[in-house]
């Protein structure tokens, strides 16, 4: 089994020490098939038990292990050591407050999630004792946007998240779009009050980096631009809807 | 109720950190030459209305080295803006026709086709 | 120490916990519900389930068929009243998820699609491509956000149940973000903490599946039932243990040994054709398939690779279109973690620990032996899975029994009347004392990795697919000795904020306690049934062992093992028959 020693430098931060973040390096003998997460687990088990980071599934579906590796936001469980150079700098996700080592404060995202009403808002009552009929084509319309694992790599990649503390962010907005496109849902105008607000889609300037780093190819940037279009059309047709109501 | 978390600050030159950020800023900055062009073109319109002498003065200014450089910058900015905009268009407006998704290249192509049509129309109008 | 007085506490925010919370909120909108989880809900291991959730909807299917498949699949160790309730509520529960937005895969007419699954006579497994657990979890989580009465406490680690006057009164926890000790006081507590796969070295389970809830209930006096039954999923990737769903076989995938031979036909699962065929060959029950691998390995017919012995899961004949439509995640996982594209090459697979059939003993309303304590999901044992679980019954179990637990707890809250205002602080001190000791000046020389490796080694070798007297005795001894060594565990991290090393140590402690219950239960069961196979007792012994094992905590001593009869209502134990040709009788009474 071929081994290769990687120099892994990790941004450490212990709030109780009242010191700013600092870099700490480790020499890690890595096996050929390892992912970065395996290397971190090796450090934790054998070199430094004080290193803290989140992980669980090890198969890129739980979204726990997002971090910045040599400047790029990635999932540690899907970053293969064979694709990394001999020296690697690992930092917590950018743009979010750092609580400890590689652990960031995700509360901003949890709040944004709730604000976009990410649940089915049906037009009437659901069919009794039966499913909504939804064709494979109707399912295909929103399926891509339902694949988000909430890993927050997009929040680390998006400069607007860093520049505007109130911005809802790519993943939350993409999830709103997922429900908007679901044939069983009728809540688009309801959600538009939040998604079309000043902290919503209009904070996005289509840098597009969120979609570049997304490990599940959700394309939140595309979702947001589509919502901008829909939001604009809603604004234009608002008088017609007012007429309908009265 | 988070205690002592470290909030990172966005550096002033955050857009120099990644090549994609730099390309984004350049794309955004194209609005400056284009806005300047609108101002200059408006001035030209005013000169046109004022009379042949003023109009000749405007054309003379446009033909000068400074004027030529300015127009070149505007052209490059405009083309960069259009190319990046057209590339992103399919993601902004995915189209479904008869239950199948229209390929992104068709949407992009349609934009170029429209641009070409406008250029041809303007050319024809100018030459007539 | 901070105190939070509430009406109901739910520990674990995976499929069962979220469903319990929603059901409780709907049953009793006035009740305050504290939903506690050691990770954010989207990280719960429900997210990794792939294949689907079973529920009868087709005209050619019946509740009776689902009942029979489940009971015989469980080798008659299932409580039949529980299974009857389960199969009856399954379709409604899945339909409710659909109404909540779960993106189930569809037929061309818009109806929900179902696929065949192991050990099932008819197609009844609802699926969302091959990420069913992911979609179920996210649907439940996002729907739970609607209910203001559900207050979440994310990244709180539950240490111990608070028991007073023989009743469960709450739970002592640690807030990971601050290290603060927080006691939740409530008349009703529901444990939905998942399984125990991480006590084995090769498992599909995520880092968080460390038997914490089982251990808490166990220490508080609630017995653990049927712990000896551990499911090996037949198709996990070698080394990483990453799950390759049974759905791949449901779509027609086949298993080949080193001679390119479909070896399952040698193990009473054939004939190999016609294929696909329900309850035959690769769609046999999981215990039989994993046992077949073990035998093939003994015969030297498995394929040797750098990552150990494997067999081949061949999907090539399905074609790229079908793989991309029905099994896209399988393709992605296979390429990333095994370096193999299933469109052009077979996937190397081997059995890996996947599911704990055993767990906290509950009745069919999800109540445990401890008043005020309920449990649902993989951490519980009702039992509907018996000695071997059929694939896709577990996701449905989360919904059906999660809802039952939520409703039972809501009922208890109604009858309890008022929130607790104070609690016997001694009960809390015991719980918090464990963390203080680990964080304090304990001078020991044991390490987490050292003890964990010891546990893994003994579980893999002595409590694997096939067991015997010698190995099980050794397992009981070794785990006893690991438990003795545990107090000498020293950790390096003595901080308060996000001290994950402390959490790993506490999780290891849980696993050692529950592993001891597991191996002692296994040692006591002198028969082979379902997933518990003994080389020294190769036959099933209904006379002595048509019973559930019950392990009761005895502190630092090994557990006491008792037995209780299985509830048999209308399906008498018979022979489990798989393979054959379509239409053959499925069991001989």
Describe this structure in words.
- The complex is a heterotrimer of chains A (246), B (128) and C (589).
- Chain A is built from nine helices and seven strands, in the order ββαβββββαααααααα.
- Chain A is of the alpha+beta class and 246 residues long.
- Chain B is mainly alpha-helical and 128 residues long.
- Helices cover 74% and strands 3% of the residues of chain B.
- In chain B, strands 1-2 form a two-stranded antiparallel sheet.
- The termini of chain B are far apart.
- With 589 residues, chain C is α/β, with parallel strands linked by helices.
- Among the domains of chain C are: 120 residues, Flavocytochrome C3, Chain A, domain 1 (Alpha-Beta Complex), CATH 3.90.700.10; 126 residues, Fumarate reductase/succinate dehydrogenase flavoprotein-like, C-terminal domain (Methane Monooxygenase Hydroxylase, Chain G, domain 1), CATH 1.20.58.100.
- Chain C is globular and about 65 Å long.
- The C terminus of chain C is likely disordered.
- Chains A and C meet through helix 1, helix 2 and helix 3 of A and helix 3, helix 4, helix 9 and helix 14 of C.
CATH architecture of chain B: Up-down Bundle
CATH class of the largest domain in chain A: Mainly Alpha
**What is the strand arrangement across the widest sheet of chain A?**
2-1-5-3-4
The CATH C-level class name of chain B: Mainly Alpha
How would the global form of chain B be characterised? flat
Largest sheet of chain A: 5 strands, mixed
Taking pLDDT < 50 over at least 5 consecutive residues as the criterion, the unreliable ranges of chain B are none
Give the strand order, joined by hyphens, for the main sheet of chain B: 1-2
Q: How many domains make up the coordinates of chain A? A: 2
Give the assembly state of these chains: heterotrimer
Q: N-to-C terminal Cα separation of chain B, in Å?
A: 72 Å
